[in-house]
Design a protein that fits this description.
Structural class: mainly beta
Largest sheet: 14 strands, antiparallel, barrel
Strand content: over 45%
Shape: elongated
């Protein structure tokens, strides 16, 4: 696997999806366009502003005339801190554990005839990166995690009637990722060779891998009348098997392991990960010629992310438990407004609330997943009849939340051994995120 620091799918002792890194629940990214960002992504399955609409509902392509192109990017600046106590070494903290990122996108649509419109989306909706640093005395449970996906998504929409539009798309997802856990103090661990000293900076566990997989999406839009519209969309789960290698002392705790506990042996292996299914129900209500209100209810099947197991044939014929996650399905509620100031200028605003995909018991240091509140503003300006520029700004408040490792009631050999050797951790995660997006749309 390529050594890419924005890599997709970090998972193992510290699989990491920092909610404030990914901004939606888990390691999900909502940042698909600057147009949507300006209204906190409210009404996305019902609004066809430009070619970017197809990524959230392929049926919306049927509202787009001629040929259109949209391209842009969203800059993400997360500020996530962790403070607490290590049972062995005392107070410890780490700041800015989530890295800045730019999330690009590109969309194309073409009207084939009066009934059919085709399009293609190049974007992503899963990814994150965390690094807990070298001074934090909780890295025995995970010191880094990075995930990235890139999606190629061709779509087709059909205008079934004047009121009903239906769309479908194929999703080809490229994903890769890495995770790590290491010591930051001297200690000792029981290995298959007995109790041995472990120096500061020793790798306890590191894994990386990549894969390619297929998925699909279906959507529909119904115009109740010329002022009210509803849209629905469903995106399938995508099953990835990350092929790569593993290394680290933790793999030698198992009596079935082989090799020296301090060797740099790379073990070939893989790990299954399911990108969860999602669904969205949206509405658009044109209240006056200038004012419109739009809403969204989103659901993500995070309950499919219950545990992570590694397949390392040279160590064991059975899968090795990497991390028990026990995530839960989550919901997102959003409401936004659009105001048509004049023929050229459109103003947008929105507010959204994301529920956490984990309970307090299951929250981990590299996944400090918690509830979030979005506040967004944005604008679009029609430079010419063909060219429109959009910009948006969002501030995300993350709820302060407790985090403890090892977790009560979770049976995890690697976490328990790490705690015995280097101390347990109990504390709190705090954070916020701000985002800035820009986008250009051109109609041929």
């Amino acid at each position: 696997m390529k050594n890419n620091k924005i890599v997709y799918l970090a998972v193992a002792t510290a699989l990491g999806s920092l909610s404030t890194t990914a901004h939606s629940a888990g390691f999900q990214l909502a940042e698909t366009s600057a147009t949507g960002l300006g209204r906190a992504f409210a009404g996305e399955a019902a609004m066809a502003d430009n070619a970017s609409a197809q990524f959230r509902n392929p049926a919306l392509l049927s509202y787009l005339a001629d040929t259109q192109v949209s391209a842009g990017g969203i800059y993400v600046n997360p500020n996530v801190d962790i403070d607490g106590q290590n049972s062995s070494t005392g107070p410890t903290s780490t700041d800015d554990v989530a890295h800045d990122a730019v999330i690009p996108n590109f969309y194309f649509s073409h009207q084939l005839d009066d009934r059919f419109t085709a399009g293609i989306a190049l974007a992503t909706n899963f990814g994150m990166e965390t690094d807990l640093g070298n001074d934090f005395t909780g890295t025995q449970f995970g010191n880094e995690a990075a995930v990235t996906t890139f999606e190629i998504n061709p779509n087709l929409a059909w205008k079934a009637t004047d009121q009903l539009r239906i769309g479908a798309g194929i999703r080809y997802v490229l994903g890769e990722g890495s995770i790590g856990a290491k010591t930051n103090t001297d200690g000792s661990m029981v290995t298959k060779q007995g109790k041995l000293p472990v120096n500061e900076g020793t790798t306890l566990k590191y894994m990386e891998g990549d894969d390619r997989a297929w998925g699909w999406q279906l959507g529909a839009v119904y115009d109740i009348n010329d002022k009210h519209r509803i849209g629905v969309n469903y995106r399938s789960e995508v099953n990835l098997t990350l092929d790569g290698h593993a290394e680290g002392l933790t793999y030698n705790i198992n009596p079935n392991g082989s090799g020296s506990p301090f060797s740099n042996t790379h073990y070939a292996g893989s790990m299954d990960l399911t990108l969860p299914a999602t669904a969205e129900l949206s509405s658009l209500h044109q209240l006056t010629e200038q004012w419109a209100v739009h809403t969204s209810l989103n659901w993500t099947e995070w309950s499919s992310f219950d545990k992570l197991e590694a397949d390392i044939p040279s160590l064991s014929s059975d899968p090795q438990m990497v991390k028990v996650e026990n995530w839960e399905d989550n919901y997102r509620f959003a409401i936004g407004t659009t105001y048509q100031w004049n023929q050229q200028l459109t103003l947008r605003s929105g507010i959204a609330y994301d529920t956490s995909a984990v309970s307090d018991q299951n929250r981990t240091l590299t996944i400090p997943e918690t509830d979030r509140t979005w506040l967004s503003v944005g604008a679009g300006y029609e430079m010419t009849p063909q060219l429109t520029l959009d910009a948006a700004f969002t501030y995300v408040f993350a709820k302060d939340a407790p985090v403890k490792e090892p977790r009560d009631g979770i049976d995890s050999l690697s976490e328990d051994v790490a705690a015995q050797a280097f101390g347990s951790f109990e504390g709190e995660t705090t954070g916020n995120v701000w985002l800035v997006g820009v986008q250009a749309s051109y109609r041929f």
